[in-house]
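Q: What would this complex look like in 3D?
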Amino acid sequence: MSSKDSDGLNRRKMLGALAALPALPALFGAKLAEAQTAAADPLPSWNRTPAKVAILEFIQATTSDPSSAAFVPPEKRVAAFDQDGTLWVEHPMYTQVVYCLDRVPVVVKAKPELADAEPFKTVLSGDVEAIAKLSMHDLEEILAATLTGMDVDDFYDEAKAWIDSAKDRRWNRLYTELVYQPMQEVLSLFRANGFKTYIVTGGGQDFVHVYSDRVYGIPREQVIGTAGGVTYGYDKDGRPFLTKEPKLLLNDNFAGKPEGIHLEIGRRPHAAFGNSTGDQQMLEYTRGGHGLRLSMIVLHDDAKREYAYGPAQGLPDTRVGTFTQALYEEAKKSGWFIISMKNDWKRIFAFE
Amino acid sequence: MSSKDSDGLNRRKMLGALAALPALPALFGAKLAEAQTAAADPLPSWNRTPAKVAILEFIQATTSDPSSAAFVPPEKRVAAFDQDGTLWVEHPMYTQVVYCLDRVPVVVKAKPELADAEPFKTVLSGDVEAIAKLSMHDLEEILAATLTGMDVDDFYDEAKAWIDSAKDRRWNRLYTELVYQPMQEVLSLFRANGFKTYIVTGGGQDFVHVYSDRVYGIPREQVIGTAGGVTYGYDKDGRPFLTKEPKLLLNDNFAGKPEGIHLEIGRRPHAAFGNSTGDQQMLEYTRGGHGLRLSMIVLHDDAKREYAYGPAQGLPDTRVGTFTQALYEEAKKSGWFIISMKNDWKRIFAFE
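A: Here is my prediction, written as structure tokens for the whole assembly.
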């Protein structure tokens, strides 16, 4: 005890000496406070706006006090994230569609009769304007031709080779670099608080399998997406494998999102993030559960740093990631939070 | 150092004194060795047979040395388990079918016109022999009538109330007590070594959701089973909910097992356990992957402690959990391990 008292005395002497330097707090106080805030802030790429506060308060309310009505037991902590336009860039075209267009020459090489058949002829022409005008039916035909009919493992290999090398034209970067840093921080924050994070995408489930773990920290088994059937069979050596079939099993858009969530999770999420009309039912379903729920929707209103499209709020209309004014009104009415890329996000990409 | 040396000297003196008691090892040695083995044995309900050794060696080979060819990185560690007849008792009738039969009176109360229609009339008669003779088509009709047409959450509530109270007649115990203790130890062993454990059952996915976490330590999202479609809609207050539909989305039997595994996991398992013809493709698919894979199949050859059925190896034939001689030969040929309940399991139930 005597040694401790002696230390205590020495400490008081030193503190007294420091107190004699009145300039110290003024010199270092502000910097210290800033450093402390940054260290404690799990969402440093967000501005301090209501959207950020809503996320932090939701996490606090659902995880910190087991006696609170808002508390969610760990096994029920599920958070669902749309991908295209919510976790990464979807303009001018969904990344998976770019992959499919890029694969058309390979498919035509194997089936030369397609070279003169539409829509393959248009794709091969390289006429960007004509390609941009392809109908939904044309795109579906291209998707079926380029995403099905092969061994699942071969598809994984091909898609991986593409995603590891293909680059977006505007930024000249890999598509996997075009993930939104603020949303990466949200994924990490949810996981650090015991939530299982799921991708719930209208895109192809198998396509996202290829990079979800590495890019988002989300394992394949937590990816729910549009899924085609597969068929079990044997190769010439009798080894079992699965073939991707042009048969739609789950259309993970609109009502298909809550339906897919039930199929692959079996629980209503407590939080969901989306950005377009295809996410409406998932956001409703999430927010409609008992207890505290969080539904948030990203508005692309930042043409300078990313893209601006709606047509909500007078933004330009688009076929890719449509956010209608009706959806905007629905969000306001239903207590979802609208995330403005322009106002809520301090930084958009990690490479900025 | 001097203090340590002095301790070392004292220890040597004590050991010398103990060595002067030659009877000591004879008195305690055997008991000590036994206690040490039990503490280190993760599969105490298994006899020391090739099946047990195969499991222990598989875990050791796939998880202990990252430089080994058999090593499986943590994110790829997936083990799949059939449920009925592999994790719990399936005779004389699958537990879920008993649930559906028990629910017939409730369904008939809501739809009185069914009381005089087959197969409902037979079920209501209580004639056990006649019920046992119902065709597969009859059973499917009963399953559709009792498992669909309701809110998913209402189904969960009803199934939970049943599983928490209904008892098997032979043991007069809850069905959830009729889980095989040796397999519970296998589930724990795999999880302790970083494997994600999945149920891959021909039974209804939603039914297993109700108790999988509590009974097997397997969360809902790791249950793959036969799944019907659900439809998104709104109740009279505008609250979104899902209705269970009589539309088959995934028949998780035979080739449907690897197909369901791809849909909900996206990876070929490294280990799989089954017990009947419905598991053949899953066991083939698992064993057919590159690197070290483990496929095991339980043979019910213990009429005294549980049930005996095949018809493999001259055991009685059955419609429930059929294990044919052809499957037995396939297992031998393909390097799967056959688990004999009689010889490999020291104990079958935790309550023994």
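A: To summarize the key features: The longest strand of chain B covers residues 223-234. The interface with chain A takes residues 75, 152, 196, 205-206, 209, 213, 219-223, 227, 229-232, 239-242, 249-250, 255, 258-259, 262-267, 281, 284-285, 288 of chain B (CB under 8 Å).
Q: Very helpful, thank you.
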